[in-house]
Amino acid sequence: MQLKKSFLSAIFCFALLLAGCSKHQSSVSYPRIFRAWSGIEDTIFKGNETENYAKHDLCFGSISGLLGLEWQLDDSIKYEGLATKISEKNLQAATDRKAELLKLNPRMLLLATIEYRDAYYGSGKDSEKVDFPPDSPFWLRDSSNNVVIGWAEDTNVDGVIDRKDDTPWGLADFTNEKFQDILADKALAVKNTGLFEGIFLDWWKERGATAYDIMEPGSGPVLSDILELAARINILKKIREKTGNDFLILVNANYDTIPLSAPYVNGAFMECYRDDFMHGYTTEEIHKMETSLAWHERNLKKPVINCLEGWRVVQKYDDDPKTRFAERNNEENKRSMRMITSLGLTHSDGYVLFSDPNELPCGDHLHNWYDFWDAQLGSPVSPKSVKYENTDGLYIREFDNGWVVYNNSGSEKEITLPGKATGLTSRLSGTRHRLPNLDGEIYLRN
Fold this sequence. Notes:
The chain has 446 residues and is an alpha/beta fold. It has helices at residues 2-23, 41-44, 49-54, 63-67, 91-104, 177-192, 225-243, 283-299, 321-328, 331-347; strands at 34-36, 58-61, 109-113, 118-120, 149-151, 169-171, 198-201, 248-252, 267-271, 307-311, 351-355, 394-399, 402-407, 413-423, 429-435, 439-445.
């Protein structure tokens, strides 16, 4: 009886995998919204967490955060960073959860995060949850033999990054080939569950070293650019060797293009950060979004799953969810959301998100859900990155059920559509419409 149950479970997992591998190639309706670790904060407190997830067409996060799975630990493997098998303890519950999510949203893709650059070394009461033993060769250390800090966040909202409380992540030595083999085995374990369509790799750069001590930024990188780049490409090759060509790989490239990674990578997560999170994007930053996204669409491995994320403007720095909810819905941020969404729709066949900046003392990438994202555009029927009447910065794209226009031209523009349509935001119907600068609009056919 147990053998029969296991066989049926394996068949079901295989069916889910086949469905996942085909659905990102099928015709889908746009816009497509993705989830980066954190969800929709304006509905998450209503207790409908599964529907929160299912509104997104692509989600990435830890195996625990996505489906409640755990890495298998035992007497021989006591640290999560060294584990290469996924525990069967919650496998049936995870299978049921994936089926429930697909019932609500058959298009959904799940990508599991594989941590290669950072490793948890804990702080305070969490120190027992470290990813590697204290003496592990997989920690990256400075000249004083201290573990190099990977990143930090002002968790206690005092405006100061404190080494003891705000820096629980250290840098892993991903140039170590034994560690690279572990990463590839982790990716294979994720694939073998049949519950994930791919993996996500954070902090992905081909120019400039990212391995630095955030508490002492003047000290310079611990690894050289050349070492880091060679290690990253080697990691991709090893993962592809283990998982094959049909398994999706998404990497966080920010604004950068990644020509050496392109043969192995299906998508770039463009986490478009701003140093000044209390003001909007500059013209140069927006132009960089356009050019990099268009490059990724042309050059990455098919099927391409690029994810463009813009950050809102912050007016009040605090940890109050009511403040965040209200600020996300002010006119400036709604306009910026429309700009980012329409940029993604006119320049890619991928996914978009508009969320909080990482600098806030709360979960990163929390966001509201906007009515703008509920538009039923259908599939694109015209090419990407097409200028309207050859006007620089003004782009238009036709979909089954209407048009999307994106304006970064420097001034308000008037457009004439081929047929009557109603602006989703303006509510105005007709063929002629006006669109402000740094804005975007969806026009649905009447």
